Amino acid sequence: MRAASRRVSARPAAGAAIAWLTAVAVFAQAPPAGVKNPIAASAESVAAGKQSYTRLCAPCHGTSAEGGAGNDLIPASPDLTDREWEHGASDGEVFASIRNGIGPEFNMTPFKDRLTDTEIWNVVNYLRSIAKK
Fold it and tell me: What does the angle CA 104 – CA 106 – CA 109 come to, to the nearest 5 degrees?
């Protein structure tokens, strides 16, 4: 009887450990907020970023990046042209949000398997170019 109770009580601890390790792995990949964008915001970078944005981001955030309505399953996506960003507004934080997704529910999935780091930095440059002043 004691062995069975130990196995049952170990399961929540194992689940918590897995969740913690997953969170550490996700956030370990994120550059710190102070990381400088290594890609110059040239016309070519902004154009490439717009192309990636239009293909992968616009379906949720809208073609003008002013947010999407959401639905019963997915919450509304935020405006990416304003000054208030819930998950950090520095270039490094925006890069990390795109690359790693937004947890814990991951309504915004990671794009690290669909975009290279350079392509993500280009999207950051594009978003900066359309930001409301």
Answer: 145
